[in-house]
């Protein structure tokens, strides 16, 4: 937990490059291990999703468009860490439900 906080604090000032995926940008900060236990994807992604919350908090506290989906959606319903390069790419997901 302490290591994660440290990574998050040091990461705040880093501007993410435009060409790499969200996952690669995270891996540059803390390795694949920052999301995957031992760097290996799990079967159910429960561990991975818990890591998102440990660093970013809860949807209820994250502002638009997050707040509307607290208790309903997972981060990966909108963000595909390996297939998207920026947070705003998640806008493409809206129309699949709304
Ligand atoms: C920001 C968190 C994050 C980081 C860092 C990350 N991943 Fe992932 N990874 C995910 C999530 C979430 C998924 C499942 C959803 C998806 O496929 O986008 C995933 C899926 C995968 C899969 C596919 C697993 C499957 O069953 O389809 C592989 C392989 C993988 N990651 C490898 C890596 C490697 C290697 C690294 C380091 C270079 C890495 N990941 C870094 C979050 C991350
Ligand atoms: C309903 C779809 C949706 C869900 C679910 C979602 N996001 Fe987002 N997120 C977005 C969109 C769209 C943006 C871009 C907002 C903007 O800047 O205009 C964004 C922006 C962000 C940003 C950058 C801006 C900021 O608010 O700091 C981060 C970090 C982020 N999301 C993390 C997460 C995490 C972590 C989760 C899960 C706990 C999550 N998101 C769940 C759609 C979503
Ligand atoms: C070890 C801490 C950590 C973990 C785990 C983590 N993040 Fe992040 N994430 C950060 C930091 C630090 C940044 C860069 C500063 C910021 O934008 O908040 C970031 C940035 C982001 C961004 C914004 C990318 C952009 O366009 O600037 C998104 C989206 C995001 N994370 C989603 C996720 C999701 C989804 C997960 C889980 C699969 C996750 N994060 C796991 C620390 C983490
Ligand atoms: C996986 C399905 C899913 C995705 C993707 C999704 N939403 Fe939602 N959204 C819901 C559900 C379920 C609710 C709560 C029920 C409802 O009010 O429709 C909701 C509620 C909302 C609300 C509250 C107001 C309302 O319509 O009731 C807003 C605003 C909203 N979403 C915007 C967005 C935006 C913007 C995006 C894309 C960044 C997005 N949603 C992506 C499922 C989704």
TrEMBL record:
Signal sequence region: 1-20
Domain of life: Bacteria
InterPro entries: Multihaem_cyt_sf, Tetrahaem_cytochrome
Keyword Amino-acid biosynthesis annotated: no
Tetrahaem cytochrome domain span: 26-98
Residue ranges of the TM segments: none
Heme recorded as keyword: yes
Cellular localisation: Periplasm
Keywords: Electron transport, Heme, Iron, Metal-binding, Signal, Transport
Essential cofactor(s): heme c
Protein name (record): Cytochrome c3 family protein
Organism (species): Ferrimonas gelatinilytica
């Amino acid at each position: 937990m302490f290591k994660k906080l440290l990574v998050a604090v040091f990461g705040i000032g880093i501007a993410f490059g435009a060409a790499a995926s969200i996952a690669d940008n995270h891996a540059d900060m803390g390795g694949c291990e920052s999301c995957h236990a031992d760097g290996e994807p799990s079967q159910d992604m429960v561990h991975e999703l818990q890591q998102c919350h440990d660093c970013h908090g809860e949807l209820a506290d994250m502002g638009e468009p997050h707040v509307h989906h607290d208790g309903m959606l997972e981060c990966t319903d909108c963000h595909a860490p390996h297939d998207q390069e920026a947070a705003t790419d998640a806008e493409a997901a809206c129309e699949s439900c709304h």
